[in-house]
Design a protein that fits this description.
- By secondary structure, the chain is mostly helical.
- It is built from 21 helices and two strands.
- The chain has a two-stranded parallel ribbon.
- The longest helix has 51 residues, at 277-327.
- The chain is rod-shaped.
Length: 632
């Protein structure tokens, strides 16, 4: 604290001189050395001061993991008394983040359990690690402060004993003032080195000591020379302090300069005696003015810090507003929610790194931030709660398909079962997501059932039985013999011969699925033979078609028959449309000057119509034939 204007020591003029200059010089020698080194005896508070040499980091911007690591580093590597503020700041920031984290987990638990949080528990190993490190620091600190208290009490006993000795010296003094002065100086040296005492005892003990020092000065009225020498050396000491404070005013590290100023004030007050009345006010005014200048510089720094904190507050309020805006957006898709979560995490990180705000609004700002994040999390949790319900429904649907696939996986009726299995697979694709913890297992069950069935089907189809292999060998040999077959030119005989070849071919039976290409080779030979017959184009076409239908029906491939029917129906529609278009063209041309019979172009169109109608009849007969085959 700053010294009051009076020095608390009597400076009576007119006292007589009784000592020599060297005796007075020795009185304050240790005080001079203390001023020159800028180190004064510390009070109780200063003896447990914080370490100012360790920079205060931006703990607010650190994660809980980083805070735990920083706490461990400080407790392990730094002196106990130098980290008190750091540790408490780290603890405060860790607990803020921890409680916010637990609140989020509790909200998630609440949404998952219809608002019930009675069974909520969350194991967080990092919290146990942090507590263990902090407890280690706390135990060390308690032990240290216990030692300090014992030391303070011991120092108090020493100071009280010094006061008693001082009283006895003054009360029992004889005529030898020089011996008395020597004894008082020794007591003052012992007082200066006695160390700090309990704060609540300080003022009383200090005032008591200086009361007896004043009594001592009353005895100096017989030795004016000793008093004047004491005034002179006190003046020198205080002038040195003023010179040092003038240097501190220009010190760039203002907080450090201010701390040293406090020490110098303590020396001024406790360790240096009075000066002559003519210099007292002058010295004090110079000292006070310099103190004010340094104090103003310190206040300017505080003002700058305050300005930065206000700017930080504006940043944090803007971040809170952005979080609230995001929380109020209506999101209906998982991918969009993931984007919103990333935005919130970025804003959360920006909030933590924005720096400190004014102390009076710190708690309110943090509460607003927590509320905004909590509102966002509530919306998010509601969405994902609904998603979980939909996913559970999807899981039930997929499990039903799994059971259906498993019930069919051993079926031997491939013709009727295969379309069902394919339909099941199509239904599976249309069902949405299921809960993640079931996704892999339910898919594996479904895939295994489907694969089992289709592997069996393909194995069955690709399996070449002895009969099929024998049929292939016979057809291959028969195909070679057909190369030498020649028509004789008689229509009926040649047609009967071709039909006989067809019957013989069919009698050989089915060939392995992988070797069905031989059927195509046989059909090419038949097509060539039919083309050589003296049949009309229509008859030849129908003969080829009949042979093809017989092969398709023999293969029992209903899908190919269905595709063939769809193709024929499409050709009929195209032919009918073409005929209608050609007839419309004739009608348009006939409305001109030339008659229909006289126009060569009309004649050509009419021929095209007749040709299309003949082809249409052929396609209709094919359709009739394939429908009758399917009805059998």
């Amino acid at each position: 604290m700053l010294e009051e204007k009076n020095d608390n020591l009597p400076e009576a003029e007119g006292q007589e001189q009784i000592t020599q200059e060297e005796t007075a010089q020795k009185t304050n020698q240790s005080a001079i050395e203390a001023i020159e080194s800028s180190n004064a005896e510390e009070s109780e508070d200063e003896s447990i001061s914080e370490g100012h040499d360790i920079p205060m980091l931006n703990y607010e911007a650190m994660s809980m993991e980083e805070l735990t690591e920083e706490l461990h580093k400080l407790v392990t590597n730094e002196k106990l008394l130098s980290i008190r503020n750091h540790v408490e700041e780290i603890k405060k920031e860790f607990l803020v983040k921890y409680h916010h984290f637990i609140d989020e987990k509790r909200d998630e638990y609440s949404h998952e359990n219809n608002g019930d949080t009675s069974g909520f528990e969350y194991h967080f190993p990092l919290k146990h690690k942090f507590d263990a490190i902090y407890n280690q620091y706390r135990d060390q600190k308690n032990q240290h402060f216990k030692q300090i208290q014992n030391s303070l009490k011991h120092n108090l006993d020493i100071r009280l004993a010094i006061i008693e000795e001082l009283k006895n010296v003054i009360d029992n003094s004889g005529e030898n003032m020089q011996e008395m002065l020597k004894t008082v100086n020794e007591l003052r040296d012992r007082w200066k080195n006695a160390g700090p005492i309990p704060r609540d005892k300080y003022n009383h003990v200090w005032n008591n000591f200086h009361f007896h020092i004043e009594r001592f000065y009353d005895h100096l009225h017989l030795d004016r020379e000793a008093r004047d020498l004491d005034f002179k050396h006190n003046y020198e000491l205080k002038s040195k302090i003023i010179t040092r404070v003038e240097e501190l005013v220009n010190e760039e590290d203002v907080p450090k300069a201010f701390r040293e100023l406090q020490s110098l004030h303590k020396i001024w007050k406790e360790e240096i005696g009075p000066v002559s009345r003519e210099h007292r006010e002058e010295l004090w005014n110079r000292f006070s003015e310099l103190t004010k200048q340094l104090h103003d510089k310190r206040e300017a720094i505080f003002a700058k810090v305050r300005e930065i904190e206000v700017e930080n507050l504006a940043k944090k309020n803007e971040i809170i507003a952005q979080i609230e805006e995001i929380a109020n957006e209506k999101i209906t898709a998982h991918s969009a929610w993931q984007g919103q979560i990333e935005k919130i995490e970025a804003l959360r990180a920006a909030f933590m790194k924005a720096g400190k705000v004014p102390l009076e609004v710190n708690e309110a700002t943090w509460a607003s931030f927590k509320e905004a994040v909590r509102n966002f999390n509530a919306q998010k949790n509601t969405f994902y709660k609904d998603i979980k319900k939909d996913q559970q429904d999807n899981l039930n649907k997929k499990m039903a398909l799994v059971e259906k696939a498993k019930s069919l996986q051993e079926s031997e009726d491939f013709g009727s079962t295969t379309p069902i299995m394919k339909q099941i697979q199509e239904e599976w694709k249309k069902i949405g997501h299921v809960p993640k913890k079931y996704s892999d297992s339910v898919w594996k069950d479904f895939k295994d059932a489907c694969n089992h069935y289709f592997d069996r089907m393909h194995e069955k189809r690709n399996e070449a039985s002895n009969e099929e292999v024998e049929a292939f060998d016979k057809k291959k040999e028969y195909l070679e013999s057909l190369k030498d077959f020649q028509l004789i030119g008689e229509h009926k005989t040649d047609l009967d011969a071709i039909k006989k070849h067809i019957e013989t071919w069919k009698s050989f039976g089915k060939v392995p699925h992988a070797r069905r290409h031989i059927e195509g080779k046989f059909n090419k030979i038949l097509d060539a033979l039919f083309d050589k017959l003296s049949l009309s184009k229509k008859d030849a076409e129908m003969a080829k078609f009949s042979n093809r239908l017989e092969q398709l029906s023999g293969n029992e491939d209903t899908r190919q028959l269905q595709n063939e029917q769809i193709f024929i129906m499409r050709k009929i529609d195209e032919m009918q449309s073409e005929i209608i278009q050609l007839e419309n063209n004739i009608q348009f041309i006939s409305s001109g000057k030339n008659s229909k019979t006289e126009n060569p172009f009309v004649k050509e169109v009419q021929k095209s119509i007749d040709r299309h109608k003949e082809e249409l009849k052929t396609w209709k007969e094919k359709l009739k034939q394939i429908r009758s085959l399917k009805q059998e």
